[in-house]
Every structure is written in structure tokens, then in C-alpha cells.
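Hi everyone,

Forwarding the result from last night's run.
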Amino acid sequence: AFADFRRDLVAGLTVAIVALPLSMALAIASGTTPDKGLITAVVAGFLISALGGSRFQIGGPTGAFVVVVFNVIAVHGYDGLVIASAMAGLMLIGAGLMRVGTFIKYIPEPVVTGFTAGIAVIIATSQIKDFLGLSLAHEPAEFIEKVGALAGAVPGVSPQTFVVGLASLALIVWLRGKRPNWPGFLIAVVLASFFVWLFALPADTIGSRFAGLEPSFAIPAFPDVSMERIVTLFPSAFTIAFLAGVESLLSAMVADSMTGRRHRSNCELVAQGVANCASAAVGGLPATGAIARTATNIRAGARGPVAGMLHAVFLLGFMAVAWPVTAYIPLAALAAVLLVVAWNMSEIDKFRHMMRAPLGDRAVLLITFALTVLVDLTVAIEVGVVLAAVLFMHRMSEAVEVQADLHLVEEDVSDSAPRDFVPMQEYELPPGVAASLIRGPFFFGVAMRLGETLDRIGATPKVLIVRMRAVPIIDATGVSALETMLDRCERNGTKVIVTALQPQPARILEDMGVLARVTRAPDFPSAIEMAREMVKTT
């Protein structure tokens, strides 16, 4: 027990070191003060770890909220954000109690990738002013107008500020490549602060921007709540709840894939709701599970939720003891931190990979991305989900027509075709070989079942046969689920054989580079023979 606590202690300290500069930077980017980011990480972070459905989840402010929080504060003030956060918390608690967590999996991959990449673009754009030290009397909220204003202000760039920002960015990138286990964000911010203080560089710092700021957990004045304000803030509250739910469960799934554990999705949603209500009560920001910090927690050796609670305690200790030193932190260094966060959020490789998906998936991806950047995050999510649903219905109608085609029926009753449909229990699988059958359209609504199938198999097989003759279509999320399964199999040394691919899945898997990672077989009996040979050679 003590050994587990010691590992949790080290993991909690490691995550706190990562979360320290990140929480302040995200708060400033959201249009509020840096202390609110730390308050959120302490209060919400502790509750998410203590009450959540994932043993390794680390909660706090994340980049996903920056856009919606900034807009709410700009339009409705901070008290409007308190109301929206509390409403979002109640929505999450209700969603968890009504067991809605299991339905989050129905959000298709192109929608998630599109709005995440769009948020990354907005965050990166919002940091240009502080990164270059530009002077703007008014920074427009709309993307196009903001880009124009920034372009017009470029001649007034501050060389000293730009050098601080560029050096911080270069150091973070270098450390990520050469010393990935070092806390690159914190090292860059500390060194930048030291050099700005040592050479008295004329760069904006937290102290100059937020003079006299002292962190406080005092309960803020109760905001004016009316039915009119609730109705006005409902779209923003729903967006906060949606983002908190999706990102926390995605983070929990990442933790599951890294640890082999299973999270409880509805319990996680209730914890997120309680944490957001508590954060609003003490003057914090919306919070959710943070994928990068959760992964850091696991890699640092965390054994359970105690690590996440200790990360909050360490941050609280910093606020109590070392808060005055934050006055020396240059905003250009925090901008560099957020530029790296934005780059990570953009998942450019995933975005590029998704552009090789079918035309409909690409359209959903690009429309969601464009609406996030140019219009509004809420609109982007709503339109993206509706488009994905329409696309799915269109694909289903096509699949029904194909299955009713006479040629397919004739093929089914031929001598060879039915062999792949013989129940698996009628075949004797060689030792070390397991088989899984996918039947029906493999789209975003059923993609998560593939991972559940692997969990039910239990012992790690040497060869896994995936039977796909009964899969008429596959979409980008289905491909992503297959890739996740292949990643897991490769880590465990399991070889994968795919049988009897139909034309549409074969074409999509070929276009997206998945077929190169598997062995193909014409039918199930052939796959068994191939698997038998593979087992002999391993």
C-alpha cells in the first residue's frame, strides 16, 4: 500500500508540474485571470479524481473550453460564466444519472476531429498578440476581423517580446524531442521569467497585466439569475456540458487503452457535473478530463485516483506559498505554451488521415471545422452531428438496396460464399487463435463494440481472425476503431487476419492505409489454415 502511495505521490507531483503553467495560460486565453485557472485545477481536479469513473483521470481547465468561455465572458460577463458553468454541471449530473454516458460514443470521429482542429486554430490565433508583443486597442472576437487586425498591427511588433516567445517555443519543441520526460512547459516558463527579470526586458508579464492579483477561494457574489438569463445562456451551457462530457470520456478511453482498465462512463459524467458546479461556486472555470495530463499521470506510474487528488494538493501548495513569483512570468512564454497546446489539439496527422476517408466524412469534417472557426462552436457541433446522421441514413439506404440485389443473393447461395457464415463454434480453432465476427454496417454507432469484443476474448491470442464478409459498408470512425484494435494487437504481438472483405470496406481500408497492416483471407476456413501456419512460425 505504501509503495502504491509513493508512486501516486510522484505521479501527482509530475502532473502538477505540467498543469501549473498550463492552467494559468488557459485562463488568460479564456479572457480571465491566471488564478482562476489554478483554482479550477485545484477544486475541479480534486473532485474529478475523487468521484470519477476512471481511476487515472486528471481534470482541470482545457483548451476545448477556451473559445466558449471567452465568448461567454465577453458577452455576459464573468457572472454569466458562473451561471453557464453551474447549468452545465447540472446537465452533466442529469446525463450521468440518466445513463447517457453510453451514448457519447455515437459522436462520429469527423465531428470531433473537425471542432477540435477548429478550436486549435482559434487558440493559436488568440496568442499571436502576446507572442509578438503587439499593441491592439481592440482585438475583434470574430476570426476574419481578428486576423485582419493582427496583420495590420504586425509593424508594431516588440522585438524583445518576440525573442522571449520564440525562444520559449523553441525550447519546448526541443525538449519534447530530446527530453520528452522533462516538464518542458515549466522549464521554458521559468527560464523565460528569469531572463526577463535579469535583463529587465520590456515584455508584458502577469504582474504588469494583472497588477495586485491575489488568488482567493472566496465564494463570489451570487449572480443575478433570471429565467431570461437562463434561456440566453442555455446554448453556451449545453456546449460546455457537451465538451466536458465528450472530452472526459475520450480521456477515460485513452486511459483504458494505456492501462487495460475499464472506466464507468455515467459515474464519470456525474463527477464532471459535481466538479463544474463546485468550480463555479469558488470562482473557477469549466473543467473536464485532460487527455495529455491523464496520459502523463499514467506514464508517471500512478496507481489510482490518489495521484489526481495529490496533483490538486500540490497546486494548492504552490498557490499558498509561491504565488508572488508568478508576477514575473512573461505572457509571451505562456503564449508559446498555448501555441504548442493548439498544435497538439489540431491533431494534424489525424486530420490529414481523415481527408482520405469517403467524401461524406470529409464534408462533415471540413464543414464542422469551418463553422467552428468562422461562426460558432455550438453551431458547428449541431450541424456536424446532423450532417453525420443524414450521411448515415443515406449510407443505410444504399446498404439495404445492395443487400436486396439479386446478384448478391445468387452469390450467397453459390458453393463457396456460405462457408464464411458457418458459425465459429463449428470450427476448431488452433491453440493461440481467436476469432471475431463483425456483422452489418460498421459505422460510428457500433465502432466501440470492437474494443469490447477484444476485452471479452480475455487472454491475448497469437492470431486474431476478424470476419468481415457481412460488413457491407464502413466509415471513418469504423476505420479508426479497427486501427485502435490493430494498435492494441501490435503492442501485444498479435497478428490480425481479415476475411472476405466486401468492395466498399476493401476500398476504404485500402485508401486509408489499413490493409497494409493486416493479412487478407478469402474466407474463414482459409484464414484458419493461415493462422495455423502463423502460430507455428511464432
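Strands lie at 59-60, 288-289, 433-437, 463-467, 495-499, 519-521.

Cheers,
N.
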